[in-house]
Every structure is written in structure tokens, then in C-alpha cells.
Write a structure and sequence with these properties.
The chain is an all-beta fold. It has no helices and 15 strands. The mean pLDDT is about 85.
Length: about 180
């Protein structure tokens, strides 16, 4: 199990066996941190620590056994999920989740955007939510579908799209 806790001061990521036992600290950022995914390539998390400008979020992976970390080559990427094969990263840039703000129906300049990036590619990341005038956050992958939370219909709802950005649809209907 991977989880975020502040046993030693700043919030860091820890792991522990599913049956219990001692928690093992696997990050040493000493800064704000968000846990996103346990993947075969390691644990995906974001931090606004010492890399880049102040308050700039960076996505990283940490291998929990060796504690080896890798920085994803993206700027202001605050949330992210790797595809099952680890070749593609779906991530959000900006958004009120950077400041933990819970504004409802926000439509301003800090709206979250959903992007797709092929790791190791020389290509730019592609924006998947260019035609959405709403904030997007929390990308999640299940099979061939990318799920996310958006306030496009007013309140936050779960939306889905194909992994290439096509066939966008609203899943929940909170009003």
C-alpha cells in the first residue's frame, strides 16, 4: 500500500505491506506532495519542491525498493496517471487543485487542463480538453477509457473519453 503521511514533519509518501507492518518512507521532498498512482514502473506523485520555479508542480516516479526517482519532463504538471504499459502519461496542468481550493463552478484563468504525453518522445504533449470551458482534474485510466472530474456541466461530475481524446461523455449527473 502506498499512502501520504507526515510522520517525520513534511508530508511524504510511505509504503507498507497490505497485511500491515512498518511503514517505509520512500520520498524525501520536504515539500508539498500529492500521491497519484502505484504503477509497475514505480509510484507516481507530484511535488512543488526544489525543481523549477517556486510553486511549480513536477511529476515524478519513485521506485519503492531502491528509492530511485525520475522527473517527468513536464512543467506545471500537478496530477498524472501512466497508461498500463507505461508509455503514455495523462496529466493535468494548472487547476485549483494546485492550491487545494474547492471553488465550485470555477471558470477563470486557473482552470485545469488535461494533456497526453508519450514518454521519451520528442513530440509536444497534446491538449485533450482544448474545447472545454471548464476546469478538469483527477485523470484516471481504466482499460481504453480516460476518466476525469470536470465542472463543464456546472458542478463537478465524472466524465470519460477514449484515450485519444475522442468520444467525450458525462458519466455522473450531479446538479
Amino acid at each position: 500500500i502506498a499512502f501520504a503521511a507526515n510522520y517525520d514533519g513534511a508530508t511524504e509518501i510511505y509504503t507498507m505491506p497490505i497485511n500491515g507492518g512498518l511503514a517505509k518512507r520512500v520520498t524525501f521532498e520536504n515539500s508539498a506532495i500529492k500521491l497519484h498512482q502505484w504503477h509497475q514502473d514505480g509510484i507516481v506523485y507530484s511535488t512543488n519542491s526544489r525543481v523549477g520555479p517556486t510553486a511549480s508542480w513536477v511529476l515524478k516516479t519513485v521506485e519503492p525498493t531502491t528509492l530511485s526517482t525520475k522527473i517527468m519532463p513536464l512543467s506545471d504538471a500537478v496530477e498524472g496517471r501512466l497508461s498500463q504499459d507505461g508509455s503514455t502519461l495523462y496529466f493535468t496542468q494548472f487547476g485549483l487543485q494546485m492550491s487545494n481550493d474547492n471553488a465550485n463552478q470555477y471558470k477563470g484563468g486557473a482552470q485545469g487542463e488535461l494533456w497526453r504525453y508519450t514518454l521519451g518522445s520528442q513530440q509536444e504533449a497534446s491538449l485533450l480538453t482544448e474545447d472545454i470551458n471548464a476546469s478538469v482534474r483527477e485523470p484516471m485510466i481504466k482499460g481504453d477509457t480516460l476518466y476525469f472530474v470536470s465542472n463543464e456541466s456546472g458542478l463537478d461530475n465524472v466524465w470519460a473519453m477514449d484515450l485519444d481524446g475522442d468520444n467525450r461523455r458525462q458519466i455522473t449527473k450531479f446538479t
